[in-house]
Amino acid sequence: MSISNPTVPQTFNASTPLQLISGSVLNEYQLVYETYGQLNADKSNAILVCHALSGDHHVAGIDADGKTGWWDGYIGPGKVIDTDQFFVVCSNNLGGCRGSTGPTTINPQTGKVYGADFPIITCKDWVASQNELRKHLEIDQWAALVGGSMGGMQVMQWAIDYPNRLRHAVVIAAAPKLSAQNIAFNEVARRAIMSDPEFHEGRFLEHNTVPKSGLALARMLGHLTYLSDDMMGSKFGRELREDKLQYNFDVEFQVESYLRYQGEKFATKMNFDANTYLLMTKALDYFDPAADYGHDLSKALANAKAKFLVVSFTSDWRFSPQRSHEIVKALLDNDADVSYAEITSEHGHDAFLLPNAHYEGIFANYMQRVLDDIKTAEVAA
């Protein structure tokens, strides 16, 4: 079945070497990205969307395979991020597995897939590569950067590293750094992958196999942290798959079946690369922009010039509202223009992806503010 007007990915081929924080250098790399809407005459209506851990460039619309974008409910004509008004860009992060240069792409020095040889990537590296994409698109300044979870961390890093290149920053369900508990969850997920006999020290593609069991376990663990206890209770409770207990170690509870399904889907149907999962979780662990400023977040954000919207969700225990409070306080310490919303939701960390009238209203109102700033600047010009 053919898809009418599918979203089509594009590729930016960067020839300027990228010096990574780890000390490694990528002499050349690719970023796959998609765009939505039209760039206006003075290129002032561009929005960059930064994706979360398992996300990619396909953020909205339907692609040639019939897959709907991961934030399609919020991006499109007449939606919260209105593509009748904005030109939206979303790229697959460097180190990803959806077309951008990463572990599954060919290492030009060896002629083989990078696999385990792909260097460690940090949030600063992602932002630096995205800035090269900005230059390629000849966009002087983003009207706004928007991101949830890991994407929100990228937005903060942009505001710190390139303060003159964005006018608004929308940081959703994020944190200024991971807690020890979050780092621990990531480590257990990585151990699950690396302990899989099919991992082969990261060279599983050379062995024509995939560490599916490890990936599935990592996803199951991650999924647990994305949902709230109340949400899992209301959705599954202690409901059994059969009418009675079987007194064995097979799947008996519906919640067990759900988690196994999510893990299996991630490892097989979604075909997410295990080395990419390791890289993304490690980049999350390393994210701590205040570390370069004497561990003072207020100092880290002192040069930020963007106006901010910070959003958290009451049941998000992965990145709790208290973590957003830290961001807001640091911005207020610098007399920044910041709006904050704490949304009541039972959906846990996943709430930023899901429908919520209060959330949508606040988000839409702020994007109208972004649009009004664009129009004001056009009149002044």
Automatic annotation (TrEMBL):
GO terms for biological process: homoserine metabolic process; methionine biosynthetic process. This is Homoserine O-succinyltransferase. The record marks 318 as: Important for acyl-CoA specificity. It is found in: Cytoplasm. Belongs to the AB hydrolase superfamily. MetX family. SUPFAM superfamilies: alpha/beta-Hydrolases. It holds the Pfam family Abhydrolase_1. Gene3D superfamilies: 1.10.1740.110, alpha/beta hydrolase. Homodimer. GO terms for cellular component: cytoplasm. InterPro entries: AB_hydrolase_1, AB_hydrolase_fold, HAT_MetX-like. Residues 45-353 form the AB hydrolase-1 domain. Transfers a succinyl group from succinyl-CoA to L-homoserine, forming succinyl-L-homoserine. Substrate binds at residues 219, 350.
